[in-house]
Amino acid sequence: MSCLWVFFIIPFGVSGAQWSDKPWINVNSSDIEEGEWIKVLCGVPIDYTGGFCRLYRDNSKVPIQSLQTNDYVCKFLVSEKDLLAGRPYGSRTSVRCDYTLQNYVSVPSDNKAVVVWGTARKPKLTVSPRVVMMGGKVKVQCSTPRNQILGCRMYRNGVHLDEIPCHHEMTAEKLMSWQTTSIFNEIDLSCKYDKREYVISKASNPIRILVVDPTKLRASTNHTFVCDVPARVQDFVLSQGNTSLSLELGGTLTLEAVNNSTGPFNQTCRVI
Q1: How many other CB atoms are found less than 10 A from the CB of residue 144?
Q2: pLDDT tens for residues 234-271?
Q3: Which of 83, 240, 261, 263 is most buried, by the most CB atoms less than 10 A from its CB?
Q4: How far apart, in whole angstroms, are the C-alpha atoms of residue 9 and residue 72?
Q5: Contact residues for 266 (Cβ-Cβ < 8 A; gap 6+)
């Protein structure tokens, strides 16, 4: 009886069909702006010494960075200038990596897309009125350059709220979406515009408005309270059922509490 010997040669001595020489890649941000950097991690399947990790841009065969490591993960720090390679801000690029050990070269990792955003000059925002009841609307106008733009974005307290036409009416409910409301809600609105794909303006100067939610008001004839409100808000009337309450010129609002309780007003009001 003769015997047949079969030998399998697996790189680096790693056995098992699940092993792969393909590195994984991760970036800490897929969107950066001028002056920013990204951190790129390239993970290799073995802990080796003397090998090199190489980082590439787009389809280039020439690495933009190469480093030696003795760990499972190679760490690259890449500037926006390295990513753009002379292209204008407002461009989309990608990165990938591979690794070498002596004469061995791995297959490349997947590609990771990165957008280097461009910026345009900031718009001017106008809002009217600056005091609005829940159920009401405000007119917002994000004044942009005359040349064609793609659209505008509204921000509440610096956080993206909605993508809107640059001349638009917004409801108070939309302005306060995902927020817990009280009687008086002061918010800062600002806007940006998209000049073209991957080019967005700087934020406009913020405008502070007051959103009044009368559903948080409870009125009766038991006690009277005085509540501090923004001094610039004058002659604004709240209505709750048949009860009408006005803001006085001094910036106070006279309210009546429910069942002798200061609960609804304990942060802003005092009994008189």
Answers
A1: 23
A2: 455 555 445 555 555 555 555 554 444 444 333 345 55
A3: 83
A4: 22
A5: none
- Tell me the one-letter amino acid at 162: D
Q: What is the longest distance spanned by two Cα atoms in the chain?
A: 110
Average per-residue pLDDT for the chain? 78
Contact 156, 188 (CB under 8 A): yes
Report the run of H or E that residue 244 belongs to, with start and end.
Answer: strand 243-246
Residue 196's pLDDT is 84
pTM here is: 0.62
CA 186/CA 184 separation, integer angstroms: 7
Q: Walk me through the domains of the chain, giving residue ranges and CATH numbers.
A: 11-116 (2.60.40.10), 119-212 (2.60.40.10), 217-271 (no CATH)
Helix (H) or strand (E) holding 26: strand 24-27
Q: How big is the CA angle at 217 (ends 215 and 223), to the nearest 5 degrees?
A: 160
Per residue in 49-100, pLDDT (tens digit) is 678 899 999 999 999 999 987 778 899 999 999 999 889 898 999 999 999 8
> Do residues 57 and 95 make contact, with C-beta atoms less than 8 angstroms apart?
yes
DSSP-derived secondary structure for 175-235: HTTTS---SEEEEEEEEEEEEETTEEEPPPPPEEEEEE-GGG----SSEEEEEE--TT--S
Encoding tokens for residue 70?
Answer: 């003795």
Q: What does the radius of gyration of the chain's CA atoms come to, in whole angstroms?
A: 30
State the pLDDT at residue 48.
Answer: 63
